[in-house]
Amino acid sequence: MSRRILTIFGTRPEAIKLFPLVHALEADPRFASRVCVSAQHRGMLDQVLEIARIVPGHDLDLMRPDQSLDALTAALLTGLGAVMDAEKPDWVVVQGDTATAMTGALAAYYRKIPVCHVEAGLRSGNIHHPWPEEVNRKVIGTIAALHCAPTETSAEALRRENVDPATVHVTGNTVIDALHWITARIEAEPELASGLAGLEARFAGKRIIGVTSHRRESFGEGMRTIASAIRRLAARDDVAVIFPVHLNPNVRQVMERELAGLGNVALIEPLDYPHFARLLGIAHLMLTDSGGVQEEAPALGKPVLVMRETTERPEGISAGTAKLVGTDADTIVAEAERLLDDEPAYAAMARAHNPFGDGKSAGRIADLLASS
Ligand code: UD1
Ligand code: UDP
Prior knowledge:
This protein is an alpha/beta fold. The protein contains 16 helices and 13 strands. The chain has helices at 12-26, 43-52, 69-87, 99-110, 133-143, 152-160, 174-188, 197-202, 221-233, 249-259, 273-282, 291-299, 314-318, 329-341, 343-349, 361-371, and strands at 3-9, 31-37, 58-59, 91-95, 115-118, 146-149, 168-170, 207-212, 239-244, 265-268, 285-288, 304-306, 322-324. The strands form 2 sheets. It has a 7-stranded parallel beta sheet, sandwiched between helices. α1 packs across α7 (174-188), α9 (221-233) runs parallel beside α10 (249-259) and α9 (221-233) runs parallel beside α14 (329-341). The longest helix has 19 residues, at 69-87. It is globular, with a radius of gyration of 20 Å. The two termini are 15 Å apart. 51% of the residues are buried.
Protein backbone atom coordinates (compact mmCIF):
# COMPACT_ATOMS: atom_id res chain seq x y z
CA MET A 1 0.00 0.00 0.00
CA SER A 2 1.41 3.39 -0.91
CA ARG A 3 1.45 6.09 1.74
CA ARG A 4 -1.02 8.91 1.30
CA ILE A 5 0.85 12.18 1.60
CA LEU A 6 -1.00 15.50 1.69
CA THR A 7 1.37 18.38 0.95
CA ILE A 8 -0.02 21.76 1.97
CA PHE A 9 1.22 25.21 1.00
CA GLY A 10 -0.09 28.67 0.23
CA THR A 11 2.60 31.25 -0.52
CA ARG A 12 5.30 31.75 -3.14
CA PRO A 13 8.28 30.62 -1.03
CA GLU A 14 6.50 27.49 0.20
CA ALA A 15 5.62 26.57 -3.38
CA ILE A 16 9.23 27.06 -4.50
CA LYS A 17 10.60 25.00 -1.64
CA LEU A 18 8.00 22.23 -1.91
CA PHE A 19 7.77 21.67 -5.67
CA PRO A 20 10.92 19.50 -5.68
CA LEU A 21 9.35 17.29 -3.00
CA VAL A 22 6.01 17.12 -4.82
CA HIS A 23 7.87 16.10 -7.99
CA ALA A 24 9.73 13.40 -6.02
CA LEU A 25 6.57 12.07 -4.36
CA GLU A 26 4.63 12.01 -7.62
CA ALA A 27 7.35 9.98 -9.33
CA ASP A 28 7.65 7.45 -6.50
CA PRO A 29 5.35 4.40 -6.29
CA ARG A 30 5.80 4.30 -2.51
CA PHE A 31 3.45 7.29 -2.31
CA ALA A 32 0.01 8.51 -3.30
CA SER A 33 0.66 12.25 -3.44
CA ARG A 34 -2.03 14.91 -3.05
CA VAL A 35 -1.51 18.67 -3.01
CA CYS A 36 -3.68 21.23 -1.26
CA VAL A 37 -3.02 24.94 -1.74
CA SER A 38 -4.61 27.45 0.59
CA ALA A 39 -3.82 30.19 -1.96
CA GLN A 40 -2.96 32.51 0.89
CA HIS A 41 -1.11 34.11 -2.04
CA ARG A 42 -2.82 34.03 -5.42
CA GLY A 43 -0.80 35.55 -8.27
CA MET A 44 2.60 34.86 -6.72
CA LEU A 45 1.63 31.26 -5.92
CA ASP A 46 0.18 30.61 -9.37
CA GLN A 47 3.43 31.79 -11.00
CA VAL A 48 5.23 28.90 -9.27
CA LEU A 49 2.52 26.28 -9.83
CA GLU A 50 2.67 27.04 -13.54
CA ILE A 51 6.43 26.78 -13.99
CA ALA A 52 6.62 23.65 -11.79
CA ARG A 53 3.57 22.16 -13.56
CA ILE A 54 1.73 21.34 -10.35
CA VAL A 55 -2.05 21.04 -10.44
CA PRO A 56 -3.39 21.01 -6.87
CA GLY A 57 -6.16 18.58 -5.97
CA HIS A 58 -7.58 21.20 -3.59
CA ASP A 59 -7.45 24.99 -3.88
CA LEU A 60 -9.01 26.91 -0.98
CA ASP A 61 -8.55 30.28 -2.73
CA LEU A 62 -8.29 32.08 0.61
CA MET A 63 -6.41 35.26 -0.31
CA ARG A 64 -8.24 38.49 0.49
CA PRO A 65 -6.89 42.01 -0.12
CA ASP A 66 -4.67 43.13 2.78
CA GLN A 67 -5.82 40.12 4.81
CA SER A 68 -5.56 40.26 8.59
CA LEU A 69 -3.70 37.50 10.40
CA ASP A 70 -6.67 36.50 12.55
CA ALA A 71 -9.19 36.23 9.68
CA LEU A 72 -6.64 34.36 7.57
CA THR A 73 -5.74 31.99 10.40
CA ALA A 74 -9.38 31.15 11.17
CA ALA A 75 -10.24 30.49 7.52
CA LEU A 76 -7.12 28.37 7.04
CA LEU A 77 -7.76 26.20 10.06
CA THR A 78 -11.31 25.26 9.09
CA GLY A 79 -10.54 24.99 5.37
CA LEU A 80 -7.49 22.78 5.78
CA GLY A 81 -9.24 20.63 8.39
CA ALA A 82 -12.07 19.89 5.96
CA VAL A 83 -9.56 18.82 3.28
CA MET A 84 -7.88 16.47 5.75
CA ASP A 85 -11.26 14.94 6.64
CA ALA A 86 -11.89 14.28 2.95
CA GLU A 87 -8.39 13.00 2.11
CA LYS A 88 -7.55 11.08 5.30
CA PRO A 89 -3.80 11.24 4.63
CA ASP A 90 -1.18 9.12 6.42
CA TRP A 91 1.09 12.18 6.60
CA VAL A 92 0.67 15.93 6.24
CA VAL A 93 3.69 17.87 4.94
CA VAL A 94 4.14 21.58 5.64
CA GLN A 95 7.09 23.87 4.98
CA GLY A 96 8.61 26.79 6.84
CA ASP A 97 6.68 29.24 8.97
CA THR A 98 3.70 30.82 7.21
CA ALA A 99 0.13 30.97 8.48
CA THR A 100 -0.73 28.12 6.07
CA ALA A 101 2.07 25.93 7.45
CA MET A 102 1.17 26.61 11.08
CA THR A 103 -2.57 26.00 10.67
CA GLY A 104 -1.91 22.96 8.48
CA ALA A 105 0.13 21.44 11.31
CA LEU A 106 -2.51 22.38 13.89
CA ALA A 107 -5.42 20.93 11.88
CA ALA A 108 -3.42 17.71 11.38
CA TYR A 109 -2.69 17.54 15.11
CA TYR A 110 -6.41 17.92 15.87
CA ARG A 111 -6.94 14.79 13.75
CA LYS A 112 -3.88 12.92 15.09
CA ILE A 113 -2.30 12.87 11.63
CA PRO A 114 1.52 12.95 11.82
CA VAL A 115 3.18 16.07 10.43
CA CYS A 116 6.43 16.29 8.48
CA HIS A 117 8.01 19.74 8.80
CA VAL A 118 10.26 20.77 5.93
CA GLU A 119 12.77 23.50 6.84
CA ALA A 120 12.50 22.73 10.55
CA GLY A 121 14.46 24.30 13.37
CA LEU A 122 15.06 27.84 12.09
CA ARG A 123 15.07 30.21 15.04
CA SER A 124 15.86 33.90 15.41
CA GLY A 125 15.30 33.78 19.17
CA ASN A 126 12.96 36.79 18.99
CA ILE A 127 9.21 36.28 18.65
CA HIS A 128 8.77 39.76 17.15
CA HIS A 129 11.45 39.35 14.43
CA PRO A 130 10.35 37.86 12.10
CA TRP A 131 6.74 38.34 13.05
CA PRO A 132 4.66 36.17 13.17
CA GLU A 133 6.94 33.51 11.67
CA GLU A 134 9.07 32.78 14.75
CA VAL A 135 5.99 31.68 16.68
CA ASN A 136 4.53 29.84 13.69
CA ARG A 137 7.60 27.63 13.36
CA LYS A 138 7.79 27.00 17.09
CA VAL A 139 4.18 25.79 17.04
CA ILE A 140 4.95 23.49 14.11
CA GLY A 141 8.10 22.27 15.87
CA THR A 142 6.01 21.26 18.88
CA ILE A 143 3.58 19.27 16.73
CA ALA A 144 5.75 17.63 14.04
CA ALA A 145 6.63 13.94 14.13
CA LEU A 146 9.35 14.34 11.50
CA HIS A 147 11.63 17.38 11.46
CA CYS A 148 13.61 17.95 8.25
CA ALA A 149 16.25 20.46 9.31
CA PRO A 150 18.21 22.15 6.53
CA THR A 151 21.46 22.37 8.50
CA GLU A 152 23.14 20.99 11.62
CA THR A 153 22.57 24.41 13.27
CA SER A 154 18.80 24.11 12.84
CA ALA A 155 18.83 20.46 13.98
CA GLU A 156 20.70 21.52 17.11
CA ALA A 157 18.14 24.28 17.80
CA LEU A 158 15.40 21.61 17.88
CA ARG A 159 17.39 19.30 20.15
CA ARG A 160 17.93 22.23 22.52
CA GLU A 161 14.13 22.54 22.71
CA ASN A 162 13.96 18.88 23.80
CA VAL A 163 12.55 17.61 20.50
CA ASP A 164 13.13 13.83 20.33
CA PRO A 165 16.49 13.57 18.49
CA ALA A 166 15.32 10.42 16.70
CA THR A 167 12.78 12.56 14.80
CA VAL A 168 15.28 15.25 13.73
CA HIS A 169 17.13 14.76 10.43
CA VAL A 170 19.49 17.05 8.53
CA THR A 171 18.19 16.93 4.96
CA GLY A 172 19.49 20.20 3.49
CA ASN A 173 17.10 22.86 2.22
CA THR A 174 14.92 22.03 -0.78
CA VAL A 175 15.45 25.61 -2.01
CA ILE A 176 18.76 24.41 -3.47
CA ASP A 177 16.94 21.56 -5.27
CA ALA A 178 14.58 24.20 -6.68
CA LEU A 179 17.46 26.43 -7.76
CA HIS A 180 19.21 23.55 -9.56
CA TRP A 181 15.95 22.55 -11.25
CA ILE A 182 15.19 26.05 -12.47
CA THR A 183 18.78 26.59 -13.64
CA ALA A 184 18.59 23.42 -15.75
CA ARG A 185 15.20 24.49 -17.16
CA ILE A 186 16.61 27.89 -18.15
CA GLU A 187 19.65 26.28 -19.78
CA ALA A 188 17.32 24.10 -21.85
CA GLU A 189 14.87 26.93 -22.61
CA PRO A 190 16.63 30.33 -22.32
CA GLU A 191 13.48 32.17 -23.39
CA LEU A 192 11.95 31.25 -20.00
CA ALA A 193 14.15 33.97 -18.47
CA SER A 194 14.65 36.37 -21.37
CA GLY A 195 12.14 38.98 -20.20
CA LEU A 196 14.73 41.13 -18.41
CA ALA A 197 16.64 41.88 -21.63
CA GLY A 198 15.08 45.36 -21.94
CA LEU A 199 16.17 46.37 -18.44
CA GLU A 200 19.60 44.83 -18.95
CA ALA A 201 20.04 47.01 -22.06
CA ARG A 202 18.70 50.13 -20.30
CA PHE A 203 21.12 49.64 -17.39
CA ALA A 204 24.13 48.46 -19.42
CA GLY A 205 27.43 49.50 -17.77
CA LYS A 206 25.83 50.00 -14.34
CA ARG A 207 26.05 47.63 -11.42
CA ILE A 208 22.69 46.10 -10.63
CA ILE A 209 21.38 46.05 -7.08
CA GLY A 210 18.53 43.55 -6.77
CA VAL A 211 16.00 44.39 -4.06
CA THR A 212 13.11 42.54 -2.42
CA SER A 213 11.20 43.51 0.70
CA HIS A 214 8.00 42.32 2.33
CA ARG A 215 8.37 41.66 6.06
CA ARG A 216 5.32 42.50 8.15
CA GLU A 217 7.42 43.70 11.08
CA SER A 218 8.88 46.40 8.77
CA PHE A 219 5.52 47.81 7.62
CA GLY A 220 5.27 51.56 8.15
CA GLU A 221 8.51 53.20 9.26
CA GLY A 222 10.78 50.29 8.22
CA MET A 223 9.44 50.28 4.65
CA ARG A 224 9.91 54.07 4.44
CA THR A 225 13.54 53.91 5.58
CA ILE A 226 14.27 51.05 3.18
CA ALA A 227 12.80 53.17 0.36
CA SER A 228 14.87 56.15 1.38
CA ALA A 229 18.07 54.06 1.36
CA ILE A 230 17.27 52.83 -2.16
CA ARG A 231 16.61 56.39 -3.32
CA ARG A 232 20.02 57.49 -2.00
CA LEU A 233 21.85 54.54 -3.57
CA ALA A 234 20.12 55.08 -6.90
CA ALA A 235 21.39 58.67 -7.00
CA ARG A 236 24.79 57.21 -7.97
CA ASP A 237 25.21 57.02 -11.71
CA ASP A 238 27.19 53.75 -11.60
CA VAL A 239 24.29 51.87 -10.02
CA ALA A 240 20.80 50.70 -11.04
CA VAL A 241 18.17 49.09 -8.87
CA ILE A 242 15.85 46.32 -10.06
CA PHE A 243 13.09 45.87 -7.51
CA PRO A 244 10.30 43.35 -8.13
CA VAL A 245 7.73 44.65 -5.68
CA HIS A 246 5.77 42.23 -3.49
CA LEU A 247 2.01 42.40 -4.08
CA ASN A 248 1.24 43.23 -0.46
CA PRO A 249 -0.31 46.74 -0.55
CA ASN A 250 1.64 47.73 2.57
CA VAL A 251 4.80 47.31 0.50
CA ARG A 252 3.60 48.59 -2.87
CA GLN A 253 2.07 51.86 -1.72
CA VAL A 254 5.27 52.99 0.03
CA MET A 255 7.63 51.91 -2.73
CA GLU A 256 5.54 53.44 -5.50
CA ARG A 257 5.19 56.71 -3.62
CA GLU A 258 8.91 56.97 -2.78
CA LEU A 259 10.61 55.44 -5.82
CA ALA A 260 8.38 55.57 -8.92
CA GLY A 261 9.87 57.52 -11.81
CA LEU A 262 13.51 57.51 -10.65
CA GLY A 263 15.81 57.00 -13.65
CA ASN A 264 18.01 54.38 -12.00
CA VAL A 265 15.22 52.41 -10.37
CA ALA A 266 13.02 49.81 -12.05
CA LEU A 267 10.03 49.03 -9.86
CA ILE A 268 8.58 45.95 -11.52
CA GLU A 269 5.93 43.31 -10.88
CA PRO A 270 6.94 40.16 -8.97
CA LEU A 271 9.11 38.06 -11.25
CA ASP A 272 8.33 34.44 -11.93
CA TYR A 273 10.99 32.07 -10.62
CA PRO A 274 13.06 31.76 -13.83
CA HIS A 275 13.27 35.53 -14.15
CA PHE A 276 14.12 35.96 -10.48
CA ALA A 277 16.93 33.41 -10.93
CA ARG A 278 18.12 35.54 -13.85
CA LEU A 279 18.02 38.66 -11.65
CA LEU A 280 20.16 36.88 -9.06
CA GLY A 281 22.58 36.05 -11.87
CA ILE A 282 22.98 39.62 -13.14
CA ALA A 283 22.90 41.36 -9.74
CA HIS A 284 26.11 42.76 -8.28
CA LEU A 285 24.56 42.51 -4.82
CA MET A 286 21.17 41.82 -3.24
CA LEU A 287 19.38 43.97 -0.67
CA THR A 288 16.61 41.89 0.84
CA ASP A 289 14.56 40.90 3.85
CA SER A 290 13.56 37.59 2.24
CA GLY A 291 14.36 34.24 3.78
CA GLY A 292 14.66 32.36 0.50
CA VAL A 293 16.88 34.99 -1.12
CA GLN A 294 19.29 34.72 1.86
CA GLU A 295 19.73 31.08 0.88
CA GLU A 296 19.82 31.41 -2.91
CA ALA A 297 22.13 34.42 -3.29
CA PRO A 298 25.10 32.94 -1.38
CA ALA A 299 24.73 29.74 -3.41
CA LEU A 300 25.27 31.90 -6.51
CA GLY A 301 28.13 33.91 -5.01
CA LYS A 302 26.13 37.13 -4.65
CA PRO A 303 26.66 39.23 -1.51
CA VAL A 304 23.45 39.76 0.48
CA LEU A 305 22.67 42.65 2.79
CA VAL A 306 19.79 41.51 5.00
CA MET A 307 17.43 44.35 5.87
CA ARG A 308 16.23 42.82 9.14
CA GLU A 309 17.10 43.01 12.82
CA THR A 310 17.61 39.26 13.23
CA THR A 311 18.09 36.25 11.04
CA GLU A 312 17.22 32.61 11.54
CA ARG A 313 19.77 31.79 8.84
CA PRO A 314 23.10 32.45 10.59
CA GLU A 315 24.97 30.16 8.19
CA GLY A 316 25.34 32.88 5.53
CA ILE A 317 26.46 35.42 8.12
CA SER A 318 29.09 33.08 9.60
CA ALA A 319 30.42 32.35 6.14
CA GLY A 320 30.72 36.08 5.45
CA THR A 321 28.45 36.01 2.37
CA ALA A 322 25.51 37.73 4.10
CA LYS A 323 25.39 40.64 6.53
CA LEU A 324 22.57 41.91 8.78
CA VAL A 325 22.01 45.62 8.20
CA GLY A 326 18.54 46.24 9.71
CA THR A 327 16.22 48.87 8.27
CA ASP A 328 18.12 52.04 9.21
CA ALA A 329 18.73 54.02 6.00
CA ASP A 330 22.24 55.26 6.94
CA THR A 331 23.41 51.73 7.74
CA ILE A 332 21.96 50.24 4.55
CA VAL A 333 23.56 52.95 2.40
CA ALA A 334 26.93 52.72 4.19
CA GLU A 335 27.10 48.91 3.87
CA ALA A 336 26.00 48.93 0.22
CA GLU A 337 28.50 51.68 -0.64
CA ARG A 338 31.27 49.74 1.06
CA LEU A 339 30.54 46.85 -1.29
CA LEU A 340 30.36 49.19 -4.28
CA ASP A 341 33.56 51.11 -3.53
CA ASP A 342 35.82 48.69 -1.68
CA GLU A 343 36.84 45.87 -4.01
CA PRO A 344 38.47 43.62 -1.38
CA ALA A 345 35.35 43.97 0.82
CA TYR A 346 33.22 42.95 -2.16
CA ALA A 347 35.48 40.03 -3.09
CA ALA A 348 35.38 38.77 0.50
CA MET A 349 31.58 38.47 0.34
CA ALA A 350 31.15 37.39 -3.28
CA ARG A 351 32.06 33.76 -2.84
CA ALA A 352 29.82 30.89 -3.81
CA HIS A 353 28.89 29.34 -0.52
CA ASN A 354 26.29 26.71 -0.01
CA PRO A 355 25.64 25.64 3.56
CA PHE A 356 21.93 25.19 2.88
CA GLY A 357 21.96 22.04 0.79
CA ASP A 358 23.37 19.99 -2.05
CA GLY A 359 20.24 19.85 -4.22
CA LYS A 360 19.28 16.36 -3.05
CA SER A 361 17.06 17.27 -0.13
CA ALA A 362 13.71 16.24 -1.65
CA GLY A 363 14.87 12.65 -2.16
CA ARG A 364 16.06 12.45 1.44
CA ILE A 365 12.73 13.74 2.73
CA ALA A 366 10.84 11.24 0.55
CA ASP A 367 12.94 8.39 2.00
CA LEU A 368 12.17 9.60 5.52
CA LEU A 369 8.45 9.75 4.73
CA ALA A 370 8.61 6.18 3.43
CA SER A 371 10.45 4.82 6.46
CA SER A 372 9.12 6.84 9.41
C1 UD1 B 1 3.36 35.75 3.68
C2 UD1 B 1 3.83 34.99 4.95
C3 UD1 B 1 5.32 35.23 5.16
C4 UD1 B 1 6.12 34.94 3.91
C5 UD1 B 1 5.56 35.74 2.74
C6 UD1 B 1 6.29 35.38 1.47
C7 UD1 B 1 2.28 34.74 6.83
C8 UD1 B 1 1.70 35.34 8.05
N1 UD1 B 1 3.11 35.50 6.12
O1 UD1 B 1 3.44 37.14 3.95
O2 UD1 B 1 5.77 34.39 6.21
O3 UD1 B 1 7.47 35.31 4.12
O4 UD1 B 1 4.17 35.41 2.58
O5 UD1 B 1 6.03 36.27 0.43
O6 UD1 B 1 1.96 33.62 6.52
N2 UD1 B 1 -1.01 39.67 -2.12
C9 UD1 B 1 -1.52 39.69 -3.40
N3 UD1 B 1 -1.15 38.69 -4.27
C10 UD1 B 1 -0.32 37.69 -3.93
C11 UD1 B 1 0.21 37.68 -2.63
C12 UD1 B 1 -0.15 38.67 -1.74
O7 UD1 B 1 -2.28 40.58 -3.75
O8 UD1 B 1 -0.03 36.83 -4.77
C13 UD1 B 1 -1.41 40.73 -1.16
C14 UD1 B 1 -2.85 40.58 -0.67
O9 UD1 B 1 -3.41 41.84 -0.50
C15 UD1 B 1 -2.68 39.91 0.70
C16 UD1 B 1 -1.38 40.53 1.16
O10 UD1 B 1 -0.56 40.63 0.00
O11 UD1 B 1 -3.75 40.14 1.56
C17 UD1 B 1 -0.67 39.80 2.26
O12 UD1 B 1 -0.53 38.43 1.98
P1 UD1 B 1 -0.25 37.38 3.21
O13 UD1 B 1 -0.13 36.04 2.64
O14 UD1 B 1 -1.22 37.59 4.31
O15 UD1 B 1 1.11 37.85 3.83
P2 UD1 B 1 2.50 38.20 3.26
O16 UD1 B 1 2.84 39.51 3.86
O17 UD1 B 1 2.54 38.03 1.79
N1 UDP C 1 11.13 35.23 -5.77
C1 UDP C 1 10.55 35.17 -7.03
N2 UDP C 1 10.18 36.36 -7.62
C2 UDP C 1 10.35 37.56 -7.03
C3 UDP C 1 10.94 37.61 -5.74
C4 UDP C 1 11.32 36.41 -5.13
O1 UDP C 1 10.38 34.10 -7.60
O2 UDP C 1 9.99 38.59 -7.63
C5 UDP C 1 11.50 33.96 -5.11
C6 UDP C 1 12.92 33.87 -4.58
O3 UDP C 1 13.77 33.29 -5.56
C7 UDP C 1 12.77 32.97 -3.36
C8 UDP C 1 11.35 33.23 -2.91
O4 UDP C 1 10.67 33.85 -3.98
O5 UDP C 1 12.87 31.61 -3.70
C9 UDP C 1 11.32 34.10 -1.68
O6 UDP C 1 10.01 34.48 -1.40
P1 UDP C 1 9.66 35.66 -0.42
O7 UDP C 1 10.81 36.61 -0.35
O8 UDP C 1 8.32 36.18 -0.83
O9 UDP C 1 9.44 34.92 0.98
P2 UDP C 1 10.41 34.45 2.16
O10 UDP C 1 11.48 33.59 1.58
O11 UDP C 1 10.94 35.68 2.83
O12 UDP C 1 9.47 33.72 3.08
